[in-house]
Structures are given as C-alpha cells and as structure tokens.
Amino acid sequence: MQPRFVIVPAVPIEKDSFRIGSRYYAATVCGGFDIYDNQAKERLKPSYPSRTDAQVQCEQMNRRDR
To answer: What is the pLDDT along the chain (66 residues), one digit of tens a residue?
Structure first.
C-alpha cells in the first residue's frame, strides 16, 4: 500500500530570463522539496530546503495518519 504522504521535488523557481534570437531562456533554481498528499491529490506547504527535512516531516505525518 502506498503511503498517504510522499516527498516530491518542488517546482523550480525562475530566477532570470533572457532572449537569444527568437527564443527565451529561463535560469531556474531548485525550489527544494514538497510533501504530496496522495489522498487529497495536492502539494502541501511549506516547502523544505533539504530532502532530509522533508523526510522527517513526511514520516511524522504518515505516523499520525495511521
């Protein structure tokens, strides 16, 4: 059985954009990690800067859900 809460990479944050010819390019930075609720089908806030921080919180939430 799949756990209710899982860790997913956060959406990259656009830092800068520039144009070369007819194309636009965006420089992005990693947004960290989010916890995804498989039951509600949504990403939970806040985002966590490291996978370890997100893992600790995710395990606590899965224990409370049982």
So the answer is: 789 999 999 988 877 888 888 988 888 888 899 999 999 999 998 889 999 999 999 999 999 987
Cα maximum dimension of the chain: 55
Number of domains in the chain: 1
Token match 């985002």: residue?
A: 47
Q: What number of other Cβ atoms are within 10 A of residue 4's Cβ?
A: 17
What is the rounded distance in angstroms from the CA atom of residue 18 to the CA atom of residue 27?
8
Q: Which range of residues forms the domain containing residue 30?
A: 5-65
pTM of the model: 0.75
What are φ and ψ of residue 49, in 5° steps? -70, -30
Q: What is the secondary structure of 4-25 as a DSSP string?
A: SEEEEEPPPEEEEEEEETTEEE
